[in-house]
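Hi, here's the filled form for the chain we discussed.

Project: internal
Contact: R.S.
Residues: 174
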Amino acid sequence: MGELDYTPIGVARAARRLDVALAGMHLDLAQRMSMTPTELLALDHLGMDGELSPTDLARRLRMHSGAVTALVDRLTAHGHVSRVPHPSDRRKLVVRLTDAGRAETMRQLGPMVDDVVALVARLPKADRATVGRFVDDLAELVAGRAKPEDGPAAAAADDGSRDAGARQRARDAT
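And the returned structure, exactly as it came back:
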């Protein structure tokens, strides 16, 4: 690729190239695993954060609860996730990635994870913390910008903190 420009704009462009590459990889991986990209994203959230309530999963996927129920039903039918009792509230359930779901995901992602680890290992130790902090900060920035303020996901995730007018606009948009 030649020598790249690592000015702030150059780094922003590099981050965008990474974003596009990851999106393509995500689409390919979902296809290889015979699932939708949203189903794969659900597995990603469960793999990174552990068990989640259906409501938390709906918020993260920006979906209504009924759509998440159908998604979890499909993932359960394929053995990727299970519904288990909430650890402290027997009335509730949480969604958990199964051992089989984790194994299949890692079978698909393992070679890439190994390549990333090898790439990071080539960095001088002093640079690893800087790169790690930057990637974490970038992920936090992107996640903060990606949250919808209105629409179905916001309505589904409404915790009562928004005013009634905003809730009505969100309902009207669906």
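Let me know if anything looks off before we file it.
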